[in-house]
Design a protein that fits this description.
The complex is a heterotrimer. Helices cover about 45% and strands about 20% of the residues of chain A. Chain A is of the alpha/beta class. In chain A, strand 1, helix 2 and strand 2 form a beta-alpha-beta unit. In chain A, helix 4 packs across helix 13. Chain A is globular and about 65 Å long. In chain B, about 75% of the residues lie in helices and about 0% in strands. In chain B, helix 4 packs antiparallel against helix 5. The longest helix of chain B has about 35 residues. The two termini of chain B are about 30 Å apart. Classes of the chains: A alpha/beta, B mainly alpha, C alpha+beta. Chains in contact: A-B, B-C.
Chain lengths: ~350, ~290, ~350
């Protein structure tokens, strides 16, 4: 590079930098990758930036919540991240380490519209969407889709189910199966473990690769227990090979939280953004586009969208939510039980 | 060059100084990529704080948890048995190839050697997917069996220990071959000729001359495969369908799913301690054999 | 045929892709107890012959008989031959005794007989006290002895030695040369050895076969080979020589260009061209006369017992080896006369002019 070009480049950089400094507050948001990132940037960040020209939201996709947590832990003395979108179970872990700041209704007025269960750890982590656990199936090999979680135990599916359960999926499935058995997950999960063992012989793989969607699409298995949002997206984009069948007993969502990072340099802008992300408007748009269940109590979903998120009216009525802080205390224990009492024997 | 090759005690002061300077980059790299993470890991395994290695107090509870849990002992045994099985088959299958490559006088020998270790150019993950295509319920073998009407239901070849073993054996074979090629230095066609001249049939030449002389290479290959097999986690996880519990997959699970980093660190340290002692014993035996 | 212990007939080896054979119709025969040396420059095919006899290389054609039995189809391990390799090829993972016992073990000799036999073999090569050593701890000469003991303990029909002395230093070489010869004659084993060293061949072998380019040029006793070489190659390869060519002017006399007349003791027709040779040690200091050539000493090399000098006569160089006890020795620049008796002139070949 010649001296002149490097000089002019430098000038250009200085000019743009100055423009940022004068006009725009940078806001670093770390969150989920893939389709979520696409939808979030398009339907939440873009409208927000249009309404707040003084804030420049920079979205960094992260591979998973554990990785986000590692990043936040590493940067705790001097965070570059302002807002983190992470799984509720990881958020609770992070709160134990004091990584997130407390929000309040004065600076985030939309907090008032969130249900009590969504305001976690004293308003440090706020649930903003729930991605339901559902059953997806290969429409070419399954003529009669399952309608109930108990259908998973049907011998006709022997060796035809992919179920990655040694993570949040298992932790969510336990209360569902428990409820079907009429038990309270806070008292015992033995009935759920028993139910898991009933369909475990049908499971081909507990570690579907590359993921729980691809194995259905490729025909390697007939059924897979996966998240609704991505399943619906694949249903729409992959020519209908993937079908989604929300069981009638209802489901629980993988809950995503939005968090203000403790020590953020742009806390005010961050709160403005969080307030928007929690608004009924933003959540409704995101629900329609991504089929993630909204949390804000003011959101009214059209019946079509509600069906694609929660399933039949019967399933919608049976939709559950969890006491996540309590779940966090048993999270490892439950996964350990799934590993040792179900997977290790099947 | 001659200075570097000379024994250390004959080195002049300035030579020693040069040597030190030459060693610095390597030592620094080793420090930052190996020693520091190891120190971090060791410290994390004693930490009371679940997320930061150097924050929090010091506790032995994670070691207590790891060592008193019979499940982890079972997992350690699984790991050991997977390591032994994989080493056994990788060595059995690699030995004839390595022997052929060593003894070959063909001008294609270089090309053949390159071909034998060429799989190292692709990642283990890619090759694992390859094996999933071959061994899957709807994979090449099962569809062949079914189209020949030999079976009706798919034979479970993957998503279990068998699949993980097969894939690991294949993935680690090039390492075994390389180690053997390096360890076959004492093989010499004249020794085989001498034995035949003394009345040994081909089979006896193999048992009495080739096998004993190639034993150091075999054992080095076996050790290398064993170490790589017991520390593998991608292949056991993907090919095992989640059913193959080894220390590698457990560490991964604790680190990324249940986010219990100190326990993950403690398990890693246990894995390290357990198997470095195996290696030390093995090396001792090997040295005695070579003496 | 039956009087011969080893018979090789029309043995040919052509390697795939080679234009000319490495071994080209070689035939020879050995009576029992004889030691034959295959002598020649490297690449002449001598080792190939040895390896074909051993069974390590398959001949392209030809026959090999041992004790009147055709063996070219017999596998190596059933030929019952002992072989001493150039690099000894001792088994590094066995002791000295283990190496020697190996052949007995392969023959199923019971353990109780094996021990004494091994001990006797080791005693024979003066290694009786080193049986428990690892072979890697032996010196070069000891390894050589061990290799010999190993090949003889099986009481082979034939002992093959491939350049057995080439890995030893000069002093050891002389010692081992005598020892091998002594052991061979004591055991009476028929032996063939390969060498490129004429001294070795001359001093050890009963007969030697001089080879060149896959063929045997001459086979005979050391004396026959040395004194009556069949051709210029043999004469040149064995010992030094002054080669002189000229025209026969009278029976037993040839006119050598630049030297004048030279008398020799061989029939040759007058008018033909002959190739003659005088070994350097055949020259003697003498007064001028017939069969004597006078010239100035150009170089001198004093070797203790022998003085090698070169004189120039008529633009030609003659080399002579003189015994140092022969009175006053010439110095450089002296004019001397070298004479040779007609019987000491070697006749090599004759061609019509």
């Amino acid at each position: 590079m010649t001296n002149r070009t490097s000089l002019s480049l430098l000038a250009l950089l200085a000019a743009t930098g100055a423009a940022h400094a004068q006009d725009k507050t940078p806001l670093n948001v770390v969150g989920f990758s893939g389709v979520f990132a696409e939808n979030y940037e398009k339907f939440i960040i873009a409208p927000f930036e249009a309404a707040h020209p003084d804030i420049d939201v920079i979205y960094q996709p992260s591979k998973n919540s554990a990785e986000t947590l590692a990043l936040l832990t590493l940067q705790r003395s001097d965070p570059t991240v302002d807002v983190a979108l992470i799984d509720v179970s990881v958020a609770i872990k992070a709160n134990g380490e004091g990584l997130f700041a407390t929000l309040d209704e004065a600076s985030v007025p939309n907090l008032a519209d969130q249900p009590a269960w969504a305001r976690i750890d004293g308003d440090k982590s706020i649930a903003f969407s729930q991605d339901n656990l559902t059953i997806l199936y290969n429409t070419e090999t399954v003529s009669e889709p399952p309608t109930s979680w108990t259908d998973l135990a049907d011998p006709k599916y022997k060796g035809k189910i992919a179920a990655k359960l040694a993570d949040t999926r298992g932790v969510i499935l336990i209360p569902i199966l428990n409820k079907i058995a009429g038990a309270d997950y806070k008292e015992t999960i033995d009935p759920a473990i028993e139910a898991l063992n009933q369909f475990a012989p049908n499971v081909s793989t507990w570690e579907p690769a590359p993921d729980c969607y691809a194995v259905v699409q490729s025909g390697e298995v007939d059924l897979s227990i996966c998240w609704n949002g991505r399943s619906q997206y694949l249903h729409d984009t992959q020519g209908g090979i993937i079908g989604v069948s929300a069981p009638k007993e209802g489901s629980i969502g993988q809950t995503n939280t939005i968090n203000l990072v403790e020590g953020s340099a742009h806390a005010e802008a961050a709160k403005t953004f969080i307030n928007y992300a929690l608004s009924a408007e933003a959540q409704a748009t995101f629900a329609e586009k991504s089929f993630y269940g909204p949390v804000n109590t003011k959101v009214e979903l059209s019946p079509e969208v509600a069906t694609r998120i929660y399933g039949s009216p019967e399933a919608q009525a049976a939709q559950m939510s969890l006491d996540w802080p309590w779940i966090a205390t048993v999270y490892s224990e439950w996964i350990q039980r799934i590993n040792r009492e179900v997977i290790a024997f099947n | 060059m001659s200075g570097a090759a000379a024994p250390a005690q004959q080195m002049t002061g300035s030579n020693r100084y040069m040597l030190l300077i030459l060693l610095v980059p390597g030592l620094l790299a080793l420090m930052t990529t190996f020693l520091l993470p190891m120190v971090w890991l060791a410290r994390a395994s004693f930490s009371t704080s679940s997320m930061s290695a150097f924050g929090g107090g010091v506790t032995l509870e994670h070691y207590h948890a790891a060592l008193t849990d019979p499940f982890y002992w079972k997992v350690a045994m699984n790991t050991l048995s997977l390591g032994v099985t994989v080493s056994f088959f990788a060595v059995i299958l690699s030995y004839p190839i390595a022997l052929f490559l060593t003894r070959s006088t063909s001008r294609w020998r270089g090309v053949l050697t390159a071909l034998a270790v060429a799989p190292l150019l692709t990642s283990a993950v890619v090759r694992t997917y390859g094996w999933m295509v071959i061994l899957g319920d709807r994979g090449v073998i099962n569809s062949t069996l079914q189209s020949l009407s030999l079976t009706t239901d798919p034979v479970r070849l993957s998503n279990n220990t068998f699949g993980a073993t097969v894939a690991l054996v294949e993935i680690l074979m090039p390492y075994a071959i390389l180690a053997m090629l390096a360890g076959f230095g004492r093989l010499n066609p004249q020794l085989e000729e001498a034995a035949s001249m003394l009345g040994a049939s081909k089979l006896r030449v193999f048992w009495r001359i080739i096998l004993p002389l190639s034993l150091p290479g075999i054992l080095t290959g076996a050790l290398l495969v064993f170490v790589l097999a017991i520390s593998a986690f991608v292949t056991p996880r993907l090919m095992g369908g989640g059913r193959v519990f080894v220390l590698g997959t457990e560490v991964f699970q604790e680190a990324t799913v249940t986010l219990n980093w100190p326990l993950a660190a403690a398990l890693s340290v246990v894995l390290l301690a357990l198997f470095s002692s195996v290696i030390v014993i093995y090396q001792r035996a090997l040295r005695r054999l070579e003496a | 045929m039956s009087e011969h212990h080893v018979v090789v007939e029309n043995l040919v080896k052509t390697y795939p892709g080679a234009a000319t054979p490495s071994v080209d119709h070689v035939s020879f025969a050995l009576p029992k107890g004889e030691m034959l040396a295959l002598l020649g420059p490297s690449g002449c095919g001598k080792t190939t012959i040895l390896r074909m006899i051993a069974g390590l290389i398959e001949p392209t054609s030809g026959a090999i008989q041992l004790n009147g039995r055709e063996i070219s189809q017999t596998p190596v391990h059933k030929r019952n031959m002992g072989m001493v390799f150039q690099a000894y090829a001792l088994f590094p993972h066995m002791t000295v005794a283990g190496n020697v016992a190996f052949g007995l073990e392969m023959r199923g000799v019971p353990n109780s007989e094996r021990g004494p036999k091994v001990q006797r073999a080791l005693d024979m090569v003066k290694l009786g006290h080193l049986g428990d050593r690892r072979v890697t701890q032996l010196s070069g000469g000891q390894q050589q002895r061990c290799a010999i003991a190993r090949s003889l303990v099986i009481e082979p029909e034939l002992l093959l030695l491939d350049e057995p002395l080439s890995n030893l230093d000069a002093k050891l070489r002389d010692e081992m040369r005598d020892e091998i010869r002594e052991i061979q004659s004591r055991t009476g084993v028929t032996a063939i050895f390969v060498t490129h060293d004429q001294d070795e061949a001359l001093s050890m072998a009963d007969r030697l076969a001089v080879m060149s380019a896959g063929r045997i040029e001459q086979i005979g006793t050391p004396r026959e080979i040395f004194d009556a070489p069949a051709n210029e190659f043999v004469a040149g390869f064995i010992g030094a020589g002054n080669f002189l060519s000229g025209r026969v002017t009278a029976p037993g006399q040839a006119e050598i260009e630049g030297l004048g007349p030279l008398r020799f003791a061989a029939p040759a027709s007058v008018g033909s061209r002959v190739q003659l040779m005088v070994r350097p040690h055949r020259f003697k200091l003498a007064a001028p006369g017939p069969n004597a050539f006078t010239g100035q000493v150009e170089s001198l090399v004093y070797r203790g017992q022998i003085l090698t000098l070169a004189i120039t006569v008529g633009g030609r160089r003659l080399t002579a080896d003189l015994h140092t006890h022969a009175g006053t020795l010439p110095a450089k620049g002296d004019t001397v006369t070298l004479a040779v008796a007609p019987g000491d002139v070697t006749f090599l070949s004759e061609a019509a002019a």
